[in-house]
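Sequence, please.
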């Protein structure tokens, strides 16, 4: 890593650490921003690096959220009684119970979605193109509807999460740094992963899966691992997001297919899929526009976001980074040889 690159990374890290102290009233919004960045990076592992456009990655986000909630509550109380709609039950969790439950819940929220991704890979990763996208979308919608009808986890009434034991402002900062840490770890892991032969393998699947198989590449294994990586970090994000909001329900919080599920794709396409920094850039711009439209164009926000997606697809199909790389390759370390018309004429006569 060059000094300039290291300085940029340290500057961004310092800005992230200082943000909740400089803007304490917006700590939750900044935490959501980190979740959006994680959304984009994990979706790009499948959709950008490997060419498998999933519309159901939100499944792992919701699974992580509910797994963490059930774990936290189940360590202290009966989950079915806690979520029963017959009465309002208030349980005071001690500090030790809360943090132990949260730690175990986040751990299981990371592991169980990986197992689910491995199982689903035997069914869905045999599909390609739009069939895979529709199949994953169907699984996410089915999970939301099943959870909505499952009384054990509260059904459509949702679950009130355990109350954070800290004082005023501590809850917001705690989950801000937790979301930031999860996103930074995801970035560092993917940065390492894309520098290995694994990146070459999934890029080969994207370019021509049949030829990759003919050359002896075990494409099924690589596809399963790539999806499992996404599931791992999305499960962690779901666990943290559910605790940060304080209340979870299936359709709008845990499995928001029409919002967060679509945002994953839009952010990655905006920044430039198949790159490390493209999803981060896309998430930053998309989240900024989202906050501005929610503040100043309330009621028109989805129209504005829809226009953004249309413009992106029509004029920036490679994303912002892809567009810049095609027009300014020297910014990305690509040396472009330029020759004058006179030199080209001499070269033509000599041949």
């Amino acid at each position: 890593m060059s000094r300039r690159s290291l300085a940029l990374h340290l500057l961004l890290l310092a800005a992230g650490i200082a943000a909740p102290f400089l803007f304490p009233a917006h700590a939750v919004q900044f935490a959501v921003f980190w979740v959006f960045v994680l959304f984009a990076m994990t979706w790009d592992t499948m959709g950008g690096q490997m060419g498998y456009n999933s519309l159901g990655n939100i499944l792992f986000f919701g699974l992580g959220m509910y797994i963490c909630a059930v774990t936290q509550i189940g360590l202290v109380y009966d989950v079915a009684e806690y979520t029963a709609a017959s009465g309002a039950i208030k349980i005071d969790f001690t500090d030790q119970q809360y943090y132990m439950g949260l730690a175990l819940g986040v751990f299981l929220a990371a592991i169980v979605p990986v197992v689910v991704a491995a199982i689903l890979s035997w069914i869905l990763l045999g599909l390609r193109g739009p069939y895979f996208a529709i199949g994953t979308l169907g699984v996410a919608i089915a999970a939301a509807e099943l959870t909505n009808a499952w009384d054990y986890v509260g059904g459509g009434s949702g679950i009130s999460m355990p109350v954070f034991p800290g004082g005023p402002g501590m809850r917001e900062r705690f989950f801000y740094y937790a979301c930031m840490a999860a996103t930074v770890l995801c970035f560092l892991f993917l940065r390492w992963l894309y520098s290995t032969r694994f990146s070459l393998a999934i890029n080969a699947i994207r370019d021509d899966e049949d030829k990759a198989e003919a050359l002896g590449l075990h494409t099924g294994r690589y596809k399963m691992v790539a999806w499992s990586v996404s599931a791992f970090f999305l499960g962690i994000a779901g666990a943290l997001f559910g605790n940060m909001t304080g209340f979870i329900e299936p359709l709008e919080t845990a499995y928001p297919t029409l919002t967060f599920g679509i945002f994953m794709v839009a952010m990655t396409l905006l920044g430039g899929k198949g790159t490390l920094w493209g999803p981060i850039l896309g998430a930053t711009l998309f989240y900024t526009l989202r906050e501005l439209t929610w503040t100043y164009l309330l009621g028109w926000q989805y129209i504005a976001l829809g226009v953004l997606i249309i413009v992106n697809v029509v004029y920036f199909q490679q994303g912002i980074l892809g567009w810049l790389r095609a027009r300014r390759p020297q910014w990305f370390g690509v040396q472009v040889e330029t020759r004058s018309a006179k030199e080209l004429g001499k070269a033509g006569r000599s041949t």
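The chain has one domain: 24-317.
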